[in-house]
Specification:
With 289 residues, the chain is an alpha/beta fold. The protein has 13 helices and eleven strands. Helices cover 45% and strands 14% of the residues.
Length: 289
């Protein structure tokens, strides 16, 4: 599946200025972004948002970033992907992840042995047929075991909330072949204090989740870095900020470190709708639109 070099990661509403669900997706395709990544959310089952994005576009890929294996059964994932394949052949990439203990436990489910659960989930998907064959799925992966599994049982990995050092380490681990498609949060702000404050507010929620903090510790960040929404060193590492040129430089750094595709997520006030202007400006810097 062709994703292009740069895509968009966006978990809020995709509604545009006319409030239609596909307005943003349609324009982002016209700007040259290669893929649209969207969270599967926290409701049980296979959400319909992926179908809406595909309906609104013509050629680009749509990926789940991610569908939680605790929220959707293998049968639901396979059936959902199969329906999208019929309607939009070759354009849906299933991103699967183990989510996080606080989220999963809200379902009344114990968050235990997430790696083993992922292995069993993939086994069940394989037994259900070709709707989500290995080359049509990626895994949210941070640590060595899940990265290795992503290389062996999927098309590759979709790391989230990581610095460039993690991208380089992941590439060394998975080797040259598998897809490596990390997410990169960006703050379009040149004022250092304002940018870091925005980045810190964004990072604070993720720094309450052990999956992310444990991964960052392996990269040399310590307790002082992880407290209070993150040190300057940490927020500068996991969030790119500045003008479009500075953000483009960070995207290129991810690519130079081994990323095949970078999923750019603009950190914005989601109550204000989709950040059209920022993605337009970034397209000119990243894609040459």
């Amino acid at each position: 599946m062709e994703l292009g070099k740069v895509g968009i990661w966006w978990s809020g509403t995709w509604s545009g200025s006319d409030r239609s669900p596909g307005a943003a997706a349609t324009e982002m395709e016209s700007l040259g972004y290669g893929a649209l990544w969207s969270s599967g959310g926290f409701e049980p089952g296979f959400p319909d948002r992926f179908g809406r994005l595909l309906d609104a576009t013509e050629q680009l890929a749509v990926a789940s970033g991610i569908l939680s294996i605790w929220h959707a059964t293998p049968e639901q994932a396979a059936n959902g992907a199969a329906a999208l394949e019929v309607a939009h052949p070759g354009r849906f990439l299933l991103g699967l992840g183990t989510s996080h203990a606080p989220v999963v436990e809200q379902l009344g489910t114990r968050y235990i042995h997430p790696y083993t659960r992922m292995v069993h989930y993939l086994d069940e998907l394989d037994a259900l047929g070709t709707a989500v064959a290995a080359d049509r799925r990626v895994l949210a992966a941070l640590g060595p075991r899940m990265l290795t599994l992503a290389a062996e049982r999927a098309a590759g990995a979709h790391p989230y909330f990581v610095p460039v050092e993690h991208v380089a380490r992941a590439r060394r681990l998975v080797g040259p072949g598998p897809l490596l498609a990390p997410e990169l949060a960006v703050v379009p702000e040149v004022d250092r204090l304002v940018a870091r404050a925005t980045a810190r507010e964004y990072a604070a929620g993720y720094l309450r989740l052990p999956n992310y903090t444990n991964n960052l510790r392996t990269l040399g960040f310590d307790d002082d870095d992880l407290e209070g929404g993150g040190s300057d060193r940490l927020v500068d590492a996991v969030v790119a900020w500045g003008d479009a040129a500075a953000i483009a430089d960070r995207v290129r750094a991810f690519q130079d470190a081994g990323a095949d595709h970078v999923c750019v997520q603009v950190v914005a006030d989601r109550s204000q709708g989709f950040p059209f202007d920022t993605y337009r400006e970034l397209a000119a810097a990243l894609i040459g639109g």
